Amino acid sequence: MRRKSVLLVLALALCLTSLAGAANIIWVSDNKANTSPPADTGWLTLLRAQGYTVDYKGESGSGGPNYQYWRTLSTAKLAELNAADLIIVSRDLSSGDYDDGDEPSQWNGITKPLLLLIGQFARSDR
């Protein structure tokens, strides 16, 4: 009986630890088809169900959806990206809209991990 209690406490501690350390994720997407709900909703639901905090500007909320929020970067937006634990760049965006002016060097200067679901985003001709 004592062994089961110890295992139960250990399992509970592991569960609470994983929730306490849940990552803050920024999801970058354009919702090109302008659908409601956005095409990325399944991913957002899955990540949130696992305890992650996902910031997606394409969802309704105060100010409504802002699908093209990340197309132009500013100092404040770069600070927002660098404050996240992970940035996921969706397939549902127009990669050619993210390469104007200094944007390639700005994206390359982000210090947090980037998970690119769209390969064209990282091409050298962008």
Task: Note the main attributes of this structure.
126 residues; single chain; Rossmann fold; alpha/beta; globular; 34% helix; four-stranded parallel beta sheet
What do these coordinates show?
The protein is α/β, with parallel strands linked by helices and 126 residues long. It has a single domain (23-122), classed as Rossmann fold, CATH 3.40.50. Helices cover 34% and strands 13% of the residues. Helix 4 (103-108) links the parallel strand 3 (86-89) and strand 4.
Strand residue percentage: 5-15%
Count of the separate structural domains: 1
Query: What profile does the largest beta sheet have?
Result: 4 strands, parallel
Rough shape? globular
- Summarize model confidence as the mean pLDDT: 77
Task: Provide the fold topology.
Blueprint: H1 2-20, E1 24-28, H2 41-49, E2 53-56, H3 75-83, E3 86-89, H4 103-108, E4 114-116
Parallel strand pairs: 1-2, 1-3, 3-4
